[in-house]
Amino acid sequence: MKSQFITYYLLVCFITLSGLSLYSQEIIDLKRDQPYMKVFVDTDNFGPSYLDVLEEAYPKIEEDSVKFSVLNDLAYYWHTRDLNKALDFARIGLDLTRQRKNNLWEGRFQITEGSILLRMEKLDSAYSVLQEAKPKVDKKDLALLNTQLGYVFERKGDLVRAADYALESKRLGEELNDSRVKAVAYSDLSNLFWKHSKFEKGLEYGLKSIAFFEQRGINDMDYDFALYVVGNNLLELQKYDEALTYYNHSIAMGERYGFYNNLSDTYISLVDLYALLNQYEDAEKAGVQAIKYATLLNNNFLLMRCWLSIGKLQLFQGKYMTAIESLQKSIDIAGPDFGDHFYLSEAYKRLGKAYVGNHDYKGATEAFVVYDSLKNQVFTEAAGQSISLLQTEFDMAQKESTIQGMEDQLKKQSSQKTLITIIAGLLLLLLLVLYVTYQKDKGKNILLERQNSEKEFLLKEIHHRVKNNLGIVSSLLDLQAAKMKDTHAIEAIEESRNRVYSMSMIHQKLYQGKNLSSIEMKDYLINLSKHILDSYGAEKFIEFEYQLDELELDVDHAIPLGLIVNELLTNSFKHAFPNSKNGKIKIVFQKIKNELLLLEIEDNGVGLNEYAENDELSSGFGSQLIDLLVQQLDGSIMTFNGQGTRVRMEFELSSKGAQFNF
User: Fold this and answer.
1) Among 213, 204, 206, which residue's Cα sits nearest to residue 181?
2) Can you point out the beta strands (E) in 494-550?
3) Which pLDDT tens digit goes with each residue over 318-334?
4) 105-109, 180-184, 476-480, 557-561: which range is least confident on average?
5) What are phi and psi of 258, to 5 degrees?
């Protein structure tokens, strides 16, 4: 409900700023098939200027039914702002319908006229007009007529007759399946329960009314009133925060559409609420607002209640003299013919308490005598029985609804059992099919597992044999080198042997590891570098520094990468550290982006310029081999010379379609 109020408040702000000229123009368009979008029935998308739009448009409308509909709405909704103007429009409508001899619309205008007269406290005239309208209108119009008759008797203090008419409206709403009629009936019954201090039941009926209005999805004056009535019941139940939420929602709606009557009602209740919360300044401001709207409407019934609420506030504050003045003013405005004995009895009750506070016991006695007399007229035994009967009817309806719900539930359960039986049979059949399929698949899976195991064994055997064969090649090269005396030839054979070893290690890793398709490169590069270090006998003066991520590469990437590392380390051992000079070689292998890998070999030797004359890095076989391997990997290579040599290579795994695993 708080979120609804916030939405309403924002909407009111928007309406105020925009003027809603566009929406107002859409209410009436004589070029449409439906020239009039009936306010609070077909649409609520407009602001307070809607009455001006209707007033300007109705003389231009030629079709009687449309003209009468617009004029009737104009008369009915003007009663929320100016009772005299509303009555003028109602009587214009009555004259037109009588000229056209349109009995149905004459009856509808009489309902509107009666609604206005009762709010002008002309209760007998209102009753007569409404009774005259009854035989002229359709069945669907009787709900509004009965509602207005109920208000007449409520104002007269006859709550029994008021409840009867509200119940009749409720019955009609159920018969016609009209959510708005039902919502208004529940709202009126909620208000009657409130007057009889049956606040829990009043709240139940009020919330039921709100639910029907929300189901309908259109804001209107009666929805606004229902919010106010729910707030009143919550106030009496001391649920002050919830009451304030409903009051604020009611005010937002009232300000949007200019419902002065509902605004005055709600501000009157806010005086009581703020007084109970000891927020006297807010209570006084609410009282000013209540009087403002009652005065604009020129409605003595509301003005009487405004001064009653202000007198109660002053009494609550201990301001007995001013309370007496305000309460006496309330009684004077009511006058001798004031029909609503409920509020009049409240005024005398508070006046008596104010006299007691002011130590005027004679005045208090006189006020309490009048209060008792009025109270006895309002809360008669018949009224109590009527309200009790109403409560019983509601409880019975709730029980019948519960019984019906249980019967529906039993039928539903029976249907569910049948459905469950069918589903169970189908599931058994499905399970049987799945079992047969499973048995067949199980045999296939066993065969596949056996075949996969055999293939895995064969792959490991192949890698093992390749490793052994490469080991034989390496041994043959070693034997060949032992027979040779040419140092350059021996050196070339040693380099070839290291190349073969770098490939041999990869196949060894493959058949020894758990994964037959990839090699863990960190361990591989460490072992390879140590082998080359050992082959050159440089353990005492060369040390390695590693920055290696734990990455796995497939064979297509691992073999070229191993050969590149072999060539670069070989060049460093041969040329970077002459005369067994102490030094350090740094190996970096890392992932720097999603699929981009970095390989970097850096030494702190004599630098590229010192051994460039050997031409190994520019035109030798090692350099050519590195270039070919880099091209194979679709990578790039850069050489940096400074205090030593640094070779940086980058390549993407995706270029070879390789799989990359952490």
Assistant:
1) 213
2) 518-520, 542-548
3) 999 999 999 999 999 98
4) 476-480
5) 75, 40
What tokens appear for 10 in the block?
């924002």
Edge-to-edge strand order for the sheet containing 636-642?
A: 542-548, 583-591, 596-603, 644-652, 636-642
Using one digit for the tens of pLDDT, what is the confidence trace for 446-501? Answer: 777 776 665 565 555 665 666 666 767 767 776 777 777 777 777 777 777 777 77
Give the burial class of 243: count Cβ atoms within 10 A of its Cβ; 0-12 exposed, 13-18 middle, 19 or more buried: buried
User: Is the predicted pLDDT of residue 133 greater than 90, yes or no?
Assistant: yes
With H, G, I as helix, E, B as strand and everything else as coil, classify residue 641: strand
pLDDT at 11 over 80: no
Collapse the DSSP code of 548 into the 3-class scheme (helix H, G, I; strand E, B; otherwise coil) and give the result.
Answer: strand
Cβ(552)–Cβ(521) under 8 Å? yes
Q: What is the pLDDT of residue 127?
A: 95
The DSSP 8-state label assigned to residue 33 in this structure reads: S
Q: Which 3 state secondary structure label does DSSP give 645?
A: strand
- Chain centroid to CA 23: 27
Q: Pick the more confident residue, 162 or 383.
A: 162
Instruction: Work out the mean pLDDT of the chain and round it to a whole number.
Output: 83
Give pLDDT, residue 473: 75
The β-bridge relationship of strands 596-603 and 552-554 is: unpaired
End-to-end CA distance of the chain: 54
**pLDDT for the residue numbered 463:** 58
**The Cα angle at residue 227 between residues 112 and 154, in degrees rounded to 5:** 50
CB 381 within 8 A of CB 196: no
Gap between the Cα atoms of 73 and 86, Å rounded: 10
CA pair distance 596, 531, nearest whole angstrom: 28
Phi, psi at residue 39, to the nearest 5°?
-65, 140
C-alpha distance from residue 555 to each of 354, 453, 520, 532, 545 (Å)? 102, 21, 11, 21, 25
How many other CB atoms are found less than 10 A from the CB of residue 527? 15
Burial of 539 (0-12, 13-18, 19+ CB in 10 A): exposed
Q: What is the pTM of this model?
A: 0.57
Q: What average pLDDT does range 359-382 have in this prediction?
A: 80
pLDDT value at residue 462: 62
Residues 6+ apart with CB under 8 A from 34: 42
CA nearest neighbour of 502 among 523, 527, 478, 519? 527
Say how far apart CA 227 and CA 220 lie, in whole Å: 11
Residue 323 parent element (H or E): helix 320-334
Q: Identify which of 469, 460, 473, 457 has the alpha carbon closest to the alpha carbon of residue 509.
A: 460
CA atoms of 30 and 63, how far apart (whole Å): 10
Q: What is the C-alpha separation between 133 and 123, in angstroms, rounded?
A: 15
Q: Residue 504: which of 522, 486, 519 has the closest Cα?
A: 519
Greatest CA separation for the chain: 144
Confidence label for 623 from pLDDT (cuts 50, 70 and 90): confident
Separation of alpha carbons 235 and 243, rounded Å: 6
